[in-house]
């Protein structure tokens, strides 16, 4: 290796997620265990202003400039479940004082009054998901809430000169019992850059070596979701149970030097709070039916042309209707109003994708009980100075799942210890106009879940720790 060999870690992320819940279990009916709860309040007069609900989140770092803002969509979601998403034509802003922006922020504003369950929300631009969230559960006097999300990473899509479709899905059902209609505004704020300085360029690019910089945002975003139209539903793919596999095809241009798959995940019905799902041996030994099972471990497996390329072990998002809705008002559970997405670095496998052919990307969920809502965006970086790049996978190590479940119970009482590890590591090179780049991508997962059932099954305590490490190391080998 020559002296230009410059390894360094560009992204290191360690998440230690600890999750602990205590709740009533057996013999409470199944619907209360994993379903949602509604709160009951006396109807009030109209004298009170609506309550403001919110999520505690890190503030978005904004430049010190005035945003150019557009209200894109104003819509009332009544009986919207199983209907096409609300949609509008989107064009990039043309009447702003600047045509270049350093930060782009999506703003969700909504009001609701009455009674309603927590509903799932998705927003897509040209089929690429930008935002996923749960609604807040309203009160009789009415509520209002605002969510802001930094969507600058979708820059190439947002600034494309084409007319695109912005689709907003909120699957609401209205009847005499759940009567809340969600009144929603979706806006985008475009922040022009501060006066040009050297630090400015530094924040938008990542240096691989002194001669070349990687652009921070992809040049192209390819949606891996359902086609719109015609569609009487949201754009996510629905994965039912553990043997279900959903596949989409895609092709990339010939001059790509980096690919990242961004995966959005959320869960409905029986798996909504999967870290407290019972192991099946406990259910069968106690003749329990109608309870969510398959134990507390879930893994979203992502495959490319039939081979595993990465995985997602999702963070547990507690919806505003789960466990006890009074816990989530006025402050929601962590990330309930802005569900995280998960990045998988595909670059080491780029070599097999550069042949101009269609390729398959597939999702499945280990141990899934119905139903998982999954889609993805393929972020693609193009080599502007080359018509064709090439690449090769050097090495890939995928550890099989190390999954141990230790059940020790008598009747309804006992302890269950689940411990799972997985590691996926790929190395490959890509030849570009600025040299050969070797990329190493690693995902390390470790989960420990201790579930204790006490009081003749009347109390359940779950203590879960999940750690994820993602490392992406590109190095230029000069040439
Ligand atoms: C730009 O045009 C859009 C659409 O006509 C409008 O909503 C927005 O308020 C305008 N923005 C400015 C800064 O004039
Ligand atoms: C959203 O709601 C907040 C709080 O009610 C308000 O301050 C803000 O102006 C609203 N934004 C839009 C774009 O409607
Ligand atoms: C939505 O926008 C309209 C028009 O600006 C405004 O009157 C209304 O209060 C907004 N609603 C919310 C929930 O922000
Ligand atoms: C859009 O951009 C492409 C590539 O930059 C260009 O070839 C095309 O003419 C543009 N179309 C319009 C309508 O501006
Ligand atoms: C809703 O309430 C109205 C009036 O009380 C009643 O006529 C109707 O049958 C109810 N609908 C349902 C689905 O319960
Ligand atoms: C479960 O059902 C089987 C067969 O119906 C019965 O033999 C067994 O005693 C039951 N076990 C419990 C714990 O109720
Ligand atoms: C491939 O990875 C394994 C395990 O990380 C390592 O032992 C081996 O040396 C690697 N082989 C190459 C050719 O890099
Ligand atoms: C199972 O639980 C019982 C009661 O708590 C305990 O006495 C026993 O040692 C446990 N067995 C194992 C293998 O952990
Ligand atoms: C996995 O996490 C558990 C609990 O935090 C810890 O005890 C264990 O050592 C970890 N295992 C690995 C392989 O990192």
Automatic annotation (TrEMBL):
<feature type="domain" description="Peptide N-acetyl-beta-D-glucosaminyl asparaginase amidase A N-terminal">
    <location>
        <begin position="63"/>
        <end position="396"/>
    </location>
</feature>
<feature type="signal peptide">
    <location>
        <begin position="1"/>
        <end position="24"/>
    </location>
</feature>
<protein>
    <recommendedName>
        <fullName>Peptide N-acetyl-beta-D-glucosaminyl asparaginase amidase A N-terminal domain-containing protein</fullName>
    </recommendedName>
</protein>
<keyword id="KW-0732">Signal</keyword>
<dbReference type="InterPro" id="IPR021102">
    <property type="entry name" value="PNGase_A"/>
</dbReference>
<dbReference type="Pfam" id="PF12222">
    <property type="entry name" value="PNGaseA"/>
</dbReference>
<dbReference type="InterPro" id="IPR056948">
    <property type="entry name" value="PNGaseA_N"/>
</dbReference>
<dbReference type="Pfam" id="PF25156">
    <property type="entry name" value="PNGase_A_C"/>
</dbReference>
């Amino acid at each position: 290796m020559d002296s230009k060999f410059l390894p360094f870690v560009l992204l290191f992320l360690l998440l230690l997620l600890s999750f602990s819940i205590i709740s009533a279990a057996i013999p409470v009916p199944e619907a209360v265990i994993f379903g949602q709860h509604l709160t009951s309040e006396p109807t009030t007069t109209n004298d009170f202003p609506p309550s403001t609900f919110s999520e505690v989140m890190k503030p978005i770092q904004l430049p010190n400039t005035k945003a150019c803002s557009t209200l894109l969509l104003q819509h009332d979601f009544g009986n919207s479940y199983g209907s096409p998403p609300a949609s509008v034509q989107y064009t990039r802003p043309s009447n702003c004082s600047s045509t270049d922006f350093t930060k782009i922020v999506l703003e969700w504003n909504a009001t609701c009054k009455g009674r309603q369950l927590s509903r799932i929300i998705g927003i897509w631009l040209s089929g690429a998901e930008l935002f996923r969230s749960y609604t807040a559960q309203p009160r009789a006097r009415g509520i209002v809430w605002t969510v802001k999300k930094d969507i600058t990473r979708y820059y190439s899509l947002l600034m494309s000169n084409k007319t695109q479709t912005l689709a907003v899905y909120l699957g609401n059902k209205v009847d005499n019992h759940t009567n809340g209609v969600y009144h929603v505004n979706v806006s985008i704020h475009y922040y022009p850059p501060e006066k040009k300085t050297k630090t400015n360029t530094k924040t938008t690019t990542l240096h691989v070596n002194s001669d070349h910089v990687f652009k921070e945002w992809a040049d192209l975003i390819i949606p891996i979701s359902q086609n719109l139209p015609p569609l009487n539903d949201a754009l996510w793919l629905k994965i039912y149970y553990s043997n279900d596999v959903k596949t989409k095809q895609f092709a990339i241009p010939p001059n790509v030097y980096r690919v990242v798959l961004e995966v959005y995940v959320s869960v409905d019905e029986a798996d909504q709070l999967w870290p407290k799902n019972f192991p099946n041996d406990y259910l069968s030994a106690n003749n329990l039916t109608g309870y969510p099972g398959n134990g507390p471990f879930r893994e979203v497996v992502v495959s490319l042309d039939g081979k595993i390329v990465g995985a997602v072990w999702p963070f547990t998002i507690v919806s505003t209707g789960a466990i006890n809705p009074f816990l989530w008002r006025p402050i929601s559970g962590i990330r309930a109003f802005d569900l995280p997405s998960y990045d998988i670095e595909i670059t080491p496998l780029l070599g097999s994708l550069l042949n101009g052919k269609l390729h398959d990307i597939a999702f499945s969920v280990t141990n899934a009980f119905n139903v998982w809502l999954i889609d993805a965006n393929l972020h693609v970086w193009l080599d502007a100075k080359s018509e064709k790049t090439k690449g090769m996978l050097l090495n890939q190590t995928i550890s099989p799942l190390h999954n141990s479940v230790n059940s020790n119970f008598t009747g309804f009482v006992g302890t269950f210890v689940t411990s799972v590890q997985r590691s996926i590591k790929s190395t490959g090179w890509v030849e570009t106009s600025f040299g050969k780049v070797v990329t190493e991508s690693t995902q390390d997962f470790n989960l420990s879940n201790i579930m204790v059932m006490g009081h003749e099954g009347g109390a359940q305590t779950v203590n879960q720790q999940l750690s994820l490490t993602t490392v992406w190391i590109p190095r230029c080998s000069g040439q």
